[in-house]
Write a structure and sequence with these properties.
With about 270 residues, the protein is an alpha+beta fold. It has helices at about 5-10, 25-35, 85-95, 110-125, 130-135, 135-140, 145, 150-165, 180-185, 190-195, 210-245, 250-270, and strands at about 15-20, 45-50, 50-55, 60-65, 75-80, 170-175.
Length: about 270
């Protein structure tokens, strides 16, 4: 296992939380007068990893980052890096999908932020910001919040209807990958990004002329890093499968334990 330490602290996949304000700024400006306390936004979140954005809105949705009908995120929050392979993430989503359906969705008690929180814990072992998760309690603890219940119920019904009719924009209903899809799995993010509107695609900088020797070194270094990353992901996958087969652990717990085992091996290799 020598060399694993090269990328256990770097070279993983970036995980970010996209934060949207469903009130489009109205909550921040009107909440002191209406609720008697400051509410900065009515938060919706999505998890971005492996070139895709995932969120829960009457079912698990997926598509290119920033392609939701909620507009641009008001904040992009780095959650850290993950060494969980995309294939394992898809299996995790399949494992939890029965709890995140059109019928289980509840605007106050079981919403997009609960989903983002579970996926974040699976990928990086940490929760999303507390003020996002506590928003329903913050609102409902006010007298006006109680009066808003009929309105909130109506919004929830609209969310379910939107899910039934399709999400539109750059998102679509997530479905567990079939064997054929799994084989071509890694091509999916590129296809999704190609379908994105122009403003969602960052402009690539002009490539700089590089001496051939430097280019060869860079290619060799990238190939080495990719090989190490692939080995780490394969070992995490093997440990995850072993822990799940033994029983008694949730996928979250198994992923965390697998990561700890691989990190410990990396330290031993470094020593």
């Amino acid at each position: 296992h020598a060399g694993l330490h090269v990328t256990m602290s770097e070279g993983g996949h970036q995980v970010t939380l996209h934060l949207y304000d469903l009130s489009q700024g109205m909550a921040r400006s009107m909440s002191p007068a209406l609720l008697g306390r400051q509410i900065d936004g009515i938060w919706h979140t999505g998890i971005v990893v492996h070139g895709q954005e995932y969120y829960f809105g009457g079912g698990i949705q997926v598509g290119y980052p920033g392609g939701t009908h909620f507009g641009r995120p008001v904040q992009v929050i780095p959650m850290g890096e993950t060494h969980i392979p995309e294939e394992l993430l898809q299996e995790f989503l399949a494992e939890i999908s029965h709890r995140f359906t059109m019928h289980t969705y509840n605007l106050l008690r079981w919403n997009c932020n609960n989903f983002s929180n579970e996926v974040a814990q699976f990928l990086v072992g940490r929760e999303i910001p507390g003020h996002v998760l506590s928003l329903p309690d913050d609102v409902m603890s006010t007298p006006l919040g109680q009066q808003l219940m009929p309105f909130l119920n109506m919004m929830e019904a609209q969310m379910r209807t939107a899910s039934e009719q399709g999400t539109g924009g750059g998102m679509h209903q997530w479905t567990p990958p079939t064997m054929n899809q799994a084989a071509s799995h890694h091509a999916a993010p590129a296809t999704a990004i190609e379908a994105a509107p122009e403003e969602a695609i960052p402009t690539a900088p002009e490539p700089k002329a590089t001496p051939p020797s430097d280019t060869e070194d860079a290619v060799k270094k990238a190939a080495t890093e990719d090989a190490v990353k692939a080995r780490i992901e394969a070992e995490i996958r093997a440990e995850f499968d072993r822990i799940m087969a033994a029983g008694g652990k949730t996928p979250n717990e198994a992923a965390a334990e697998a990561l700890e085992i691989i990190r410990a091996r990396a330290k031993e290799g470094k020593a």
